[in-house]
Design a protein that fits this description.
Blueprint: H1 9-25, E1 28-32, E2 45-49, H2 54-74, H3 82-89, H4 91-119, H5 124-132, H6 134-170, H7 184-200, H8 209-232, H9 236-240, H10 254-264, H11 268-271, H12 282-315, H13 332-366, H14 374-394, H15 399-455, H16 460-519
Helix pairs in contact: 1-2, 2-8, 2-12, 3-4, 3-10, 3-12, 4-12, 4-15, 4-16, 5-6, 5-15, 6-7, 6-13, 6-14, 6-15, 7-13, 7-14, 8-12, 8-13, 10-15, 10-16, 13-14, 15-16
Length: about 525
């Protein structure tokens, strides 16, 4: 343990820099002395520090959360349909819609972080049970499993799409006839068994950092490719008017476009397991708040906008629901490299979803206090990956429909309904707890003049003092009313508005999922 004697400012600054540098380059974990006795991953390299280096600890925790959340948010399959959504909504409406959805998800994520810190319950299920009892816990568990499992099914279906395009461009487009067993399904099965399954066996979310980093690098390379093509061809869809800049093109694909955007920014199920790995108290809450803000507005919004704008400006109304279906490169080597990397990217992005799904199933079946066993770890991985693969093999070309159904149901429940309900219940319980104090404060000004009247004679001086007291009391009550109004706006009106936004996007997604069934 480092010395607990007061340190000079320069030594504290040096240690802070060293802490940040070590964090950026390795898996070192900084803890305080009282945290050293807690359970840490066996592979963690741990520095035990005292209070003079609290700044270093908080900076390390914040950087850990921001780095992991950025990779989790960017490394997901929902980025591939974004150019299609922008091509249907137009640039201005698409940007505003993304900003609205990012704000809504940022707000609900912060609601969950504050609730977890206030109640000491760091899981979705425990928070839901605290707020509404066992019925809400069961409702949350079912919604989480449907959301995460549906996301895995859709991700594997996207892998099948990309695999089909890879085989098609390397064989059929070159005048070759591939064997009957070489198709999108075989590519999907190979990726699921050889790449996804081994990655999903990792025990701790921190161990997925390297995989998430590789996913971010791949998606950034794709954005650079689209940007280079769009700039080199002078944004062809914008010049021809296929991609409107300021107007909204109303057609039958518009609800699907809004559903895609509404689905893209959710991160709450992957965020919640990180709460266990953050420092307790205000330092952990501040680190997670900053990580969420940075992730959604500084990374995800920029990445999604870049992908959407460059992709839509290239292909206009011909933009496919999966941008990889469009022709991005020519030549067998370039095609094999690009589509092979995207298969790897989609598999890497699914590892964090499977981690959250595995944690939810384990909590549902064996409880929160059950010790870790590799038997359950491998069993849950086999069940989750195997069942998702079975569904994707049955409907390999229906990724957008799977996402629409999941977005219309589970996303709305997990990302909007449950966090808003927890927030409203917290506000209600806090008001009930503070009600006796508020009653006492409200009665005090009424008692004060009565006591003064009985103890002091009346006169001009007393009347002036009473007038000043009344004015001060009126000012205090006015400030109190404004404070109450702002509190209601922040704690009640804003969450309800966010809930309405989520329901609106879910209705759009439900329309996309149901209308083809009705028409057929």
């Amino acid at each position: 343990m480092l010395s607990s004697e007061p340190w000079p400012l320069t030594r504290t600054a040096v240690l802070s820099s060293v802490a940040a540098a070590l964090l950026l380059s390795s898996d070192y974990l900084f803890v305080t002395a009282d945290q050293a006795c807690r359970h840490l991953p066996a592979s963690s390299k741990c520095f035990v520090v005292d209070e003079p280096v609290t700044v270093a600890i908080r900076t390390a925790a914040q950087l850990t959360a921001e780095r992991m959340l950025c990779r989790l948010c960017c490394c997901c399959s929902s980025i591939l349909p974004i150019p299609f959504a922008i091509s249907k909504t137009g640039v201005l409406v698409g940007c505003l819609t993304m900003l609205l959805v990012a704000w809504a998800n940022d707000a609900t994520s912060c609601m969950l972080i504050r609730a977890a810190a206030a109640t000491g319950k760091p899981t979705y299920e425990a928070l839901a049970e605290w707020a509404g009892g066992r019925p809400w816990k069961v409702f949350t568990q079912i919604s989480l499993v449907l959301l995460l499992w549906g996301t895995m099914c859709g991700g594997l279906a996207l892998i099948s799409d990309v695999g089909y395009m890879l085989v098609h461009k390397l064989t059929t487009d070159q005048g070759l006839t591939p064997p009957i067993w070489v198709n999108g399904r075989t590519c999907m099965t190979a990726v699921a068994l050889l790449v996804l399954f081994p990655l999903c066996l990792q025990r701790h979310m921190r161990e997925l950092e390297k995989a998430a980093t590789a996913g971010v690098v791949l998606v950034l390379c794709l954005i650079v490719l689209l940007a280079t093509e769009a700039v080199g061809r002078h944004f062809p869809a914008v010049q021809t008017g296929e991609l409107p800049l300021w107007s909204l093109k109303v057609d039958g694909h518009l609800p699907e476009a809004f559903a895609v955007v509404g689905y893209a920014f959710y991160m709450q199920p992957m965020m919640m397991p990180l709460l266990r790995e953050m420092p307790e108290g205000r330092a952990g809450v501040r680190a997670m708040h900053k990580a969420v803000h940075t992730t959604l507005f500084g990374v995800a919004l920029v990445v999604y906008l870049s992908m959407g704008l460059f992709g839509a400006s290239l292909f206009g109304q011909c933009t496919e629901g999966n941008i990889m279906v469009n022709t991005l490169v020519t030549g067998r080597a370039a095609t094999a490299g690009l589509y092979g990397c995207m298969l790897l990217y989609l598999a890497l992005g699914m590892t964090t979803t499977q981690y959250a799904l595995r944690a939810s199933l384990d909590l549902m079946v064996v409880g929160e206090d059950a010790p870790f066993t590799w038997f359950r770890q491998v069993g849950w991985t086999v069940i989750t990956v195997g069942s998702s693969l079975a569904v994707a093999l049955l409907v390999p070309d229906q990724a957008e429909k799977i996402y629409a159904v999941v977005g219309a149901t589970a996303v709305c429940c997990v990302c909007y309904v449950v966090p808003v309900y927890i927030q409203l219940r917290m506000y209600q319980r806090r008001k009930q707890r503070n009600k006796p104090m508020q009653v006492a404060d409200d009665e005090a000004p009424l008692l004060e003049p009565l006591i003064q009247d009985t103890l002091a004679p009346s006169g001009p001086v007393d009347l002036a003092a009473s007038a000043r007291s009344n004015r001060a009391h009126c000012t205090k009550r006015s400030r109190h009313c404004w404070s109450q109004a702002l509190e209601i706006l922040h704690e009640v009106v804003s969450p309800v508005a966010i809930l309405l936004i989520g329901v609106g996007f879910s209705v759009a997604a439900l329309y996309v999922a149901v209308m083809p069934m009705i028409n057929s």
